[in-house]
Amino acid sequence: MTVAQPDAEAPPARAPFPRSAGEILARATAVAPLLRERSGDIEQARRLPADVVELLRGTGVFGMGFSKEWGGPGLSSVEQTEVIEALSYGDVAAGWCAMIGSDSGLYAQFLDEPVARAMFPRPDMVTAGLLFPAGRAEVVDGGYRLSGRWQFGSGITHADWVVSGAFLFRGGQPVPGPDGDPHDSKLFMVPRRDVQVVDTWHTTGLAGTGSCDYVIEDVLVPAERALTFDDVRSGSGVLAHPEVHMRNMPGVALGVARAALDHVTQVVATRPGGPSRRLADDYRTQVTIADCEADFAATRESTYGALRRQHEVLADRGDLAALTRRERAALPLSRRHAFRTARSIVTRLYDLMQTSSIYRPSPLDRWLRDTTTMCQHIVAQDRIAQSAGAHLLGGTPSFPLSLGITAQDRSPR
Is residue 141 helix, strand or coil? Predict the structure, then answer.
């Protein structure tokens, strides 16, 4: 059924927008316990309640991708990931929506600056949508007529703008791409008021993200609101690169894994394990906790290590091509590994706690479902491993964008 929604215009910020990474991270850390308290409500609503959206807005997370030149805080990808990790420690769905919604400042770099400034008059505006081309865009005078139905509109129920991928047509015929692709595609920015939300989001996990299907019917999109990741139009520096929107995603996985470890460690420290014994003295419990901690520490270090190295190279050389093949492959691989390790940690802890895990009041039940669902995202799939492996071996990645490789990079020089 189609859910009628008012325009998702967010109210003006209630407090001055935070201008530093430290302040945004501190605010995110402070609201995490409040998000944990609301986790049941968030999951039951199958979207973020309005007051939870405002909690997130107050942290500054939605604007953290806007550069200092825009008057934003200009957080690095490392700093963005830390913020998403802190929020996801409180609630996974809130962290996921924060991660998606914070892309507004990143997309702005792929638009002409006057256009982007008109679209985003405030730094706390939210963008949602599906990037893969699932729609149809007919080329017309001045722009495109966009139609289609897309899935996975995470955060779309509180978004200001919706970005959607679509194949190009002219006169009903496919428009070829510049790299020889028989069918070109672009991304299109559409105001939320021109989008119909279809309430399909009944899922295993991540229920609170409101990642519903959505429909756009013959909406005229001006040419200046179409973009591709090949073309940085108004950005520069370490964030002005085609895969920038994927970099902070591991924060969700790391946040939930840390939350599960802290929760179980606290429970077993006080729970009896039998006559005259604590559960914390049980051999299996000790080994499981230790193994999970080891996996978490190694995964977190590899994730942030890859991001820091990327930042160093881009700050110095300004080009992803300056990374070695191993350094470039480490980025998507560490991201995929973070997602899968989070699922593994939560699963092992769920098994460790046995029947106490199965009841819906248990956060382990929700975390098991959330990590299972988020590992179905493409960033956690074998296609990422193939792409990284192909890059290491000099082959052809099936998902080159995960490595920051665009059609322009593959075009003959």
Answer: coil
